[in-house]
Amino acid sequence: MNYSKPNAGSCALASLFLTISLAGCGGGSDSGSAQANSSTTPPADNSAATPTPTPNPIPTPTPTPSPTPVPAPSIGSWPLSAQNDAAVAGKEPTLPTAVCATVNASLTRNAKGLLDNSIDATPANSQPDASRIQSALNSCANGQAVKLVTGANGENAFLSGPLTLKAGVTLWIDSGITLFASRSPVDYQIAGKNTCGATSASDNGCSPLISITPNNSGVVGDGTIDGRGGAVMTSGTYANTLTWWDVGALTKTMSNANQNNPRLIQVNGGSNFVLYRTTLQNAPKFHVVTTGTNGATIWASKILTPSLEYSVAGYNCAAGTAPVVSGSPNLTRASTCFTPDTTKNTDGIDPGQSQNVLIAFNHISTGDDGIAIKSHTSPATSNIQILHNRMYYTHGMSIGSETDSGLSNVTIRDMTVDGFDISSTSGFRIKTDDSRGGEVKNVVVDGLCTRRVTQPLLIDSYYGNAQGSTNALVPNIHDITIRNVRNLDVSGSRYAGAGNASIGFRGYQYTSPTSPLKNITLDNVVFDSMPGWGSPASGFPALASNAGLTMGPGPVSFASLLHAAGGQNGFTLTDARTGTTTAPYDCSTAFVNFPATNAPMTVQ
Question: What's the pLDDT tens digit per position in 436-486?
């Protein structure tokens, strides 16, 4: 993609965003082309009024109490302990104060919340709003925003193909507005690359819907970006035959197949990207990816795929209506109902090769990793803070699988993962193998509530049962602290009860040199039931192997399981528990419904 240079004569925004400096963060997608902005204003300061002086002969005023922090509206549903967390104080972004252009909607969502198929049934009308939105973005001065707003007669929708945000320009999607993505693969086709909207040996064929090289800029507002992953494509290999997500499903039923589907937001380089309060839903592939970005804030956003518009309540799709993910590939039938298990590679947030990233107060439900921190080629990923986030149907909180350029200084705190009993979900995992390698170090997980997940905890150097790669890149994972974790049983869950949820700690030992997991600490990690070890594939090491773990000082409810594995397969255990009574991590308010009326699931 070509990116316009910022206008040298542009007006400076008085304070579009106050740049967040995250250099002191606790340290942290997929590689590829993409953009970011991290900005804030301090929270409101509402000091209590000075009380009336006590009526004495000589009145003495009572000292004014210390100011009580007033939470911003975007995080008002979170517990006060999260809202008043010093680590996020003053870091919430703000909406722009300077708008260079408003663009009025000319389309209207139908009763189901989608666009009528007739609007873009022909590829010639696949992106009627792209040129006027792009023109406004191109004309906007540095530090200003283009705002998408309601039309004169209540129109509330836009339909666009790929858009490029130049450095310093923000796209503001107003409340009630939906920016829909084109369903014509031709609109996204990158010249000379693989065919967009089809499978191939690599996935380089599609431009993203939104490309950004940020400079204190990004995507904000209470509106929605809908990628229309469940819509039937209107051009290309599978025109009028398959949906974007049907193409994704082909990666499960065809050999050597990668999906060429567009991402929603791709952040390429730059600094200080912001995604603030915006809903992203139904992405054909990843929702938001940062690549080589220094400074990013993703705050109070909602990511939901698939939404109710493309599914049914409880994701209870009727037989024969969902994508085929096993057996013979489906090349002839457009699916009409989708579940998280059938929307492949729809990661929520993937910070890759990026530094100084804050991801806070988000709700995420997707068909793949909720958040996946990655590091491929260069530079290394570092200083990533993931604070106060809730995940639903996802593969959980991941580091990897791309780790070759190194990851360090990652803090994950106050994370909730409800896996809803799907087969591929984890709580927290580090995943890599010898085709990727790289060093992963200085990671702290502090405060994790999980339930209905198959693997609450996993650190694995053989991701995807891979070993013996010609790359011969040995993973090096060390200094990982996992503290204050609670895995709860839920009545009726297939992962409740002894042995039904699994854990794994497996270092690398396929060739010389071996690379054990080192300095892995478990502290106050409590499961309602005893987990089991996952079953390794034939020819692979046990899930408790080539690793050095320490328990304590707090309790570990499955200590007997770890002790039984100690001294075998290179698995060593140090028991540093003090025996002091420590309450399990409190998850009593952790599990709440996804805050959207078009969410197909409830947590109850």
Answer: 889 999 999 999 999 999 999 999 999 877 777 777 789 999 999 999 999
- Look-up: residue for tokens 């070759």? 404
Q: Give the CA radius of gyration of the chain.
A: 25
pTM to 2 decimal places: 0.88
Residue 69 pLDDT class (50, 70, 90 cuts) = very low
Cα 381 to Cα 403: distance, rounded to the nearest angstrom: 9
Considering the candidates 30, 395, 414, 434, report the single residue annotated as catalytic. Answer: 395
Q: Which two tokens stand for residue 360?
A: 């806070």
Distance (Å, whole) CA 206 – CA 505: 37
Residue range 15-41: mean pLDDT, rounded:
38
| Cβ(244)–Cβ(197) below 8 Å | yes
CA angle at residue 42 from 37 to 48, to 5 degrees?
Answer: 160
Written as six digits, the tokens of 175 are: 């409340």
Chain-centroid distance of CA 16 in Å reads 25
Question: How far is the CA of 211 from the CAs of 231, 332, 350, 379, 485, in angstroms?
Answer: 22, 32, 15, 20, 37
Query: What's the mean pLDDT when you consider all of the chain?
Result: 89
* Under 8 Å between Cβ of 459 and 517: yes
Residue of 129, 222, 341, 368 marked catalytic:
368
Buried b or exposed e, range 588-604, using 16+ CB within 10 angstroms = eebbeebebebbbbebe
- Contacts of residue 7, Cβ cutoff 8 Å, sequence gap at least 6: 141, 142
Q: How far apart are CA 215 and CA 143, in angstroms?
A: 9
Report the alpha-carbon distance of residue 499 to residue 496 in Å, rounded: 8
Return the number of other C-beta atoms located less than 10 Å from residue 61's C-beta. Answer: 10
* 368 tagged catalytic: yes
Instruction: Decide if 395 is catalytic.
Output: yes
With beta carbons less than 8 A apart as the criterion, state whether 389 and 367 touch.
Answer: no
Position 377 confidence tier, pLDDT thresholds 50, 70, 90? confident
Residue 566: name the closest of 541, 549, 586 by CA.
549
Q: In angstroms, rounded to a whole number, what is the distance separating the alpha carbons of residues 34 and 288? A: 9
572's tokens: 């060593």
Cβ atoms of 44 and 72 closer than 8 Å: yes
